[in-house]
Specification:
By secondary structure, this protein is an alpha+beta fold. The protein contains twelve helices and twelve strands. The protein has an eight-stranded antiparallel β-sheet with strand order 4-5-6-7-1-10-12-11, with helices on one face. The two termini are about 30 Å apart. This is Protein-arginine kinase.
């Protein structure tokens, strides 16, 4: 596949397969950090060494077929325009750190985009498996399959006492970061999130925004992941996260039921106000669009809106980001131009949904 294939569609193919509890858990992600033995970490290595690592990735993994994920395509950051890299960040296929122009990076992508292997991010390789809904166990199994496949071709840095060695001490051990992206609007509306977030942090988990560390939790979307990897097995890490996510799902469902029973009229008003604004606005800032889309998705999941697909939130949350708006426009847009195009795109997408 070409670069254009990966950046032309907002919805990755894996996102179209709605997984368990997908009304609350939008996606599950498993990430494994791995480094080549006796080789400097990317954060201290020269650009020449970065190029060597990319060539290793190309020769050993690019165009090689995996039984589950098929053939992987290698894309070099140096060969991409700034906005093209931004689109891949918006689709969660690479991190903002990898798109940094100060070093040579790359990514290996599967055709359905459920697998991305970042090359020369903080570590030589960061294996990332993305699945729709609440599927941490499947994600871990698939990531381990890729890990074994790669380890058949490379020697990774590993010590018996410490486990896998990584550039960041918090990843030493299993090198595993497990996370879920959750839509928790009812807990936010009922003001329970302020109480819940500190409790989650005390359990050794971390809560971030939609684009990970340093990002804001826009549109009531929260990324919840483990914080430490040393001293725990992969199964223990996933079990700890799973137990918290199960409780959050139950609490969000209970909060939604309470809103329906005690504040149905107010919820209908909130949902349809947002729907009306999205349907008719001529300009729309990103932050407002994200919040309005969250309201509409909540209305769909609560049965207040019945003629629109719930996946529209997933699609428009990405489609209305600055990178995608500019990719479709074929030019760099000012903030005002992006706001106008965002409003137009949302109106047209909702109209198309209504007609279908």
């Amino acid at each position: 596949m070409s670069l254009q294939n990966f950046i032309s569609e907002a919805i990755s193919p894996w996102m179209k397969n709605e997984g368990p509890d997908a009304d609350i858990v939008l996606s599950s992600r498993i990430r494994l950090a791995r480094n080549i033995d006796n080789t400097p970490f990317p954060i201290t290595a020269s650009k020449e060494k970065h190029e060597e690592i990319i060539e290793i990735a190309r020769s050993k993994f690019s165009k090689h077929s995996h039984k589950r994920f098929g053939t992987l395509e290698l894309l070099k950051m140096d060969d991409m325009k700034k906005n093209e890299k931004r689109v891949l960040v918006e689709k969660h296929l690479i991190s903002p750190n990898l798109s940094d122009e100060s070093k040579a990076g790359a990514v290996l992508l599967s055709e359905d985009e459920s697998l991305s292997i970042m090359v020369n991010e903080e570590d030589h390789f960061r294996i990332q498996v993305l699945l729709s809904g609440f599927q941490l166990d499947h994600g871990l199994r698939y990531a381990n399959e890729i890990d074994d496949w790669m380890e058949d071709r490379l020697d990774f840095a590993f010590e018996e006492k410490r486990g896998y060695l990584t550039s960041c001490p918090t990843n030493v051990g299993t090198g595993l970061r497990a996370s879920v992206m959750m839509h928790l609007p009812a807990l936010v509306i009922t003001r329970q999130m302020n109480r819940i977030l500190p409790a989650i942090n005390q359990l050794g988990l971390v809560v971030r925004g939609i684009y990970g560390e340093g990002s804001e939790a826009l549109g009531n979307l929260f990324q919840i992941s483990n914080q430490m990897t040393l001293g725990k097995s992969e199964d223990d890490i996933v079990d700890d996260l799973r137990s918290v996510v199960v409780q959050l799902i139950q609490q969000e469902r209970a909060a939604r039921e309470t809103l329906l029973q005690q504040s149905k009229l107010q919820m209908e008003d909130r949902v349809y106000r947002s729907y009306g604004i999205l349907s008719y606005s001529r300009t729309m800032e990103s932050k407002e669009a994200t919040q309005r889309l969250s309201d509409v998705r909540l209305g769909i999941d609560m049965g207040l809106i019945t003629d629109i697909s719930g996946s529209i939130l997933n699609e428009l949350m990405i489609l209305t980001q600055p990178g995608f708006l500019q990719q479709y426009a074929g030019e760099i847009l000012s903030s005002e131009q992006r706001d106008q195009r965002r409003a137009t795109l949302i109106r047209e997408r909702l109209k198309l949904e209504e007609n279908n």
